[in-house]
């Protein structure tokens, strides 16, 4: 069932309000017209009885003040609708010497019955029109939901998603076509970027191997150490780019085995060679790819040391691994858009290439894990890996 704030129910509510206003206006017009006709007929009957000197026309005694004030010159008559008692109304006709009053109770009862019938008929029409309006609004509402689902899939990275808008000239078809066009354009741009990354990484690999070999042949010295350090940084960068290109191409697959997460997290931090406090709750076990999980956790710990501040804490609970530092936290752009390659969010240049978190997110997709980024209220960045 669609939520009450959906377009479907808004349309149904609008139709209900419009129908109610029309029914109220028609009911008031009919009520007013019927009342005026009843009063006119009542006046005619009272005047006819008065002028015919019927038995009901006699000395009335004291007349109601409102009627007496209406009587003019001798020989003239006046009429007055007496509704002082709303359940027993009368129509008066009087001259200076005679008066007659006609019972209007029957007309009043007929008018009230007519009002009830109008109300019941209006409620019946509303009971029919509102469901029909909700049903009629379901088709465009369903099309809009399909467009929204497609847009969310595109935002989540599924650039193959399409709305299949079909033919039509209404606004929903235009929106759907625009979403499809946007997804196709993003898909093309991403493919170009992925091919460029893969080509650059492959082209750099061959000369990089030559640089590594040449650096090893250099005589020992301070300059040689500097060259080897920079060559090592370049080698890691090229390997990261190659890994990203494989992840982008969907060429990676997980090899799942049972992994004792507590011992695994401790070993991973030890292999990373960086200080981190590992806390394990219970004896959690998960079925996942240990090599890829090691890559994810190592990158998160390295990122915490590189962009955060000690102490770095790794907490394992059930199938969730949390890495927290005590630095300035993740930048707002990363929290809003996720990790982006070559964007570190750091004010200074040269501290990483923004590839570590990108690789971690890519490897998490391969093993079916979810990785989230947040900032702790007490300070520091928090990365959470939830294994399925």
From TrEMBL:
Any one of the GO CC terms: plasma membrane
Matching PROSITE patterns: HAMP, HIS_KIN
Under the heading InterPro entries, the entry gives: 2C_sensor_his_kinase, HAMP_dom, HATPase_C_sf, HATPase_dom, His_kinase_dom, HisK_dim/P_dom, HisK_dim/P_sf
Query: What keywords sit in the KW lines?
Result: ATP-binding, Cell membrane, Kinase, Membrane, Nucleotide-binding, Phosphoprotein, Transferase, Transmembrane, Transmembrane helix, Two-component regulatory system
The catalysed reaction is: ATP + protein L-histidine = ADP + protein N-phospho-L-histidine
Tell me which Pfam families the record gives: HAMP, HATPase_c, HisKA
The UniProt record lists the Histidine kinase domain at: 199-388
Example GO molecular function: phosphorelay sensor kinase activity
Q: What is its EC number?
A: 2.7.13.3
Q: Which residues form the HAMP domain?
A: 142-191
User: How is this protein situated with respect to the membrane?
Assistant: Multi-pass membrane protein
Q: Report the main location listed first in the record.
A: membrane
Q: Where in the cell is it found?
A: Cell membrane
Specify the domain of life of the species encoding this protein: Bacteria
Where does the sequence pass through the membrane?
12-31, 118-139
User: What is this protein's record name?
Assistant: histidine kinase
